[in-house]
Design brief:
The protein is of the alpha/beta class. The chain has 12 helices and 10 strands. The strands form 2 sheets. Strands 1, 2, 4, 5, 7, 8, 9 and 10 form an 8-stranded mixed beta sheet that branches.
Length: 306
């Protein structure tokens, strides 16, 4: 049976997808089809390119300082606070410069056409360019230009691309949404930020030069848990995406959904990879009997019909 996984978007929570894929492979249920939105496109693309080990090593190495080293502020050019060139360069270094059609598994990154609102499935061309387009969160990242079209985050049109997996030939589709918990995130950030972290935060801001420092304050705030421009924009967008996610999954339900409590990790907490990966693995372990039963059932039907 050809298994497909639809990996949803959700910022740093997407490191959970690494644990999901690891557990599926370990159980002998390796996906042959992968469709990803935003961070789901990054993890799914790395898996399809046989570079999941390298991406996991990179994710586990991230700390707060490393996160901000990947923030190249977009000075006065509009379209987004972050240019995204450093992220693109890092992905190329970690995953390699590959063409999607050369991958060992069928893969598509989902993006959204900014001008038409149409869903775009990128299943050919440069892998890194496809990833960058899929994760271009509006207001935060500058849109990507692919085939002369400005593309933004695929979550706007299809937060968990079940339909994409089916269109690519998956016979059993496993959906991995990344639920959010907006209020709890901010409460925890404000409650758990010790003085040392606040001092480190300010040192990070001080590392920027003027006028970058002004934009950095807009993006990072003066201290952990602040209501920054980025926090307000991203949180509001994810409230909308939560609604869209429910609608899409209800209208095109997967065969299996891997649900978790990953929402306790905030969108930009990329330094919590170890925890996120463990959450993804545990959530997958819980539904393995359901997936295995579906695979056995399909095999039995095939034997009877053959």
């Amino acid at each position: 049976m050809r298994i497909g996984v639809a990996l949803g978007g959700g910022g740093a929570r997407g490191w959970a997808h690494i644990g999901v894929l690891r557990k599926l492979v370990e159980a002998g249920l390796e996906p042959a089809v992968i469709a990803g939105t935003s961070i789901g496109a990054i993890v799914g693309g790395a898996f399809a390119a046989d570079r999941l080990d390298q991406l996991e090593a990179f994710a586990r190495s991230m700390d707060r300082r490393a996160i901000w080293q990947h923030v190249d502020l977009n000075l006065g050019k509009g379209a987004g606070l972050v240019a995204g060139e450093r992220v693109t360069q890092t992905l190329a270094e970690v995953i390699g410069d590959r063409d999607i059609t050369s991958l060992t598994k069928k893969f598509a990154a989902v993006a959204t056409d900014l001008l038409t609102g149409h869903e775009v499935w990128i299943d050919r061309g440069n892998l890194i360019a496809a990833m960058r387009a899929s994760c271009a969160m509006p207001g935060l990242f500058v849109p990507s230009i692919v085939d002369e079209r400005p593309l933004i985050d695929g979550g706007i049109a299809n937060p968990v691309p079940v339909s994409t997996c089916r269109a690519m030939g998956a016979q059993l589709v496993i959906a991995v949404p990344l639920p959010t918990s907006h209020a709890k995130q901010r409460e925890r950030l404000a409650r758990e930020a010790p003085e040392a972290d606040a001092s480190a935060w300010k040192r990070t801001l001080a590392a920027f030069r003027e006028p970058e420092r002004y934009l950095a304050r807009q993006l990072l705030g003066e201290e952990p848990g602040a209501l920054t421009t980025a926090f307000v924009s991203i949180t509001a967008l994810n409230i909308l995406l939560d609604r869209m996610r429910r609608v899409r999954l209800a209208s095109d339900p997967p065969d299996v959904t891997i649900a978790s409590d990953i929402g306790r990790i905030a969108l930009l907490e990329f330094d919590r990879a170890e925890e996120a990966i463990a959450i993804g693995a545990a959530a997958t372990q819980a539904v393995l009997p359901e997936i295995e039963a579906l695979v056995r059932s399909a095999a039995a039907v095939k034997r009877r019909s053959g």
